[in-house]
Write a structure and sequence with these properties.
2 domains, 9 helices, Rossmann fold, globular, alpha/beta, 10% strand, 240 residues, binds nicotinamide-adenine-dinucleotide
Length: 240
């Protein structure tokens, strides 16, 4: 991992911890809307994207269109300055993490129709910026992230979670979902993360007495744990 990538990862983790990380949820249906509310509850600024202007208007007016989600809950979330719904996909670049929750209806052979994922991938690809995390939440088969998202992102010169790449200018690095990373790169990155954590543990063991350990803020401990599981090439993902 280059110094720039390490710094980017540390900034990303810090933004999560300080709740300054801006989350973008694409597709505000049965999956996307509850996710917006969940992130809002946890204190994150959230931008919800949908192609349906009636939905984004309803949400910004504090109205619900999903029966089991009460209007009061929507009003509370969307009346705050931190949460907004929009049809303006140019604003994708404002988000540090993008979660794709668009439909994947089953086709005649019960295969998921990836049309909406492809449209979304194109939307993201033209606005992708360094350090963004992209997660595919829609139900699909393994490999979709690599084949449908990463392929399109790489055409713009971006590279996902790589330590280096001749094809990608430094400004076009993006964090990747785990199935979009070559196994060899995943392995070596995981190994280097383990080595860093082991070094940190050794330093901690040498330098801290039991009392100084108990004074260490809990968030710092959590941070080193989360690092183990969220090195750039093994960033969180959910590809179904
Ligand atoms: N509903 C569930 O209980 C459930 C459970 C697990 C997984 N899933 C999966 O999650 C995904 C989303 O399901 P859902 O039930 O939320 O669907 P939904 O139909 O309720 O919502 C999808 C939303 O995406 C919007 N949309 C469509 N194309 C878009 C685009 N290009 N850009 C932005 N927004 C777009 C639609 O207007 C709609 O508001 C699907 O892949 C589904 O299989 C759903």
């Amino acid at each position: 991992m280059t110094l720039t990538e390490t710094t980017q990862l540390e900034q990303f983790i810090e933004a999560v911890e300080t709740r300054t990380l801006r989350v973008g949820v694409i597709g505000l249906g049965y999956v996307g809307l509850p996710l917006v509310l969940l992130f809002e509850e946890q204190g994150f600024p959230v931008l919800g994207f949908d192609i349906d202007p009636e939905k984004t208007r309803a949400l910004n007016d504090g109205k619900t269109y999903i029966r089991h989600i009460g209007e009061e809950r929507i009003r509370k979330a969307f009346s705050s300055d931190k949460v907004e719904a929009t049809t303006d996909f140019d604003r994708l670049g404002e988000c540090d993490a993008l979660i794709i929750c668009v439909p994947t209806p089953l086709g005649p052979h019960r295969e998921p129709d990836l049309k909406y994922i492809r449209i979304t991938a194109e939307q993201i690809a033209t606005r992708l910026r360094a350090g963004q995390l992209v997660v595919l939440e829609s139900t699909t088969y393994p490999g979709t992230t690599r084949e449908e998202l990463l392929t399109r992102f790489e055409q713009t010169g971006a590279s996902a979670g790589r330590t280096s790449s001749s094809r990608s200018p430094p400004s076009a690095k993006t964090r990747a979902t785990s199935d979009s990373t070559p196994a060899r790169s995943r392995k070596s990155s995981a190994a280097s993360t383990r080595r860093r954590c082991a070094r940190r543990r050794r330093c901690t063991a040498r330098s801290s007495t039991p009392s100084s350990r108990s004074r260490r803020p809990r968030s710092r401990n959590r941070r080193s744990c989360s690092r183990t599981s969220s090195a750039p090439s093994t960033s969180p993902s959910s590809t179904r």
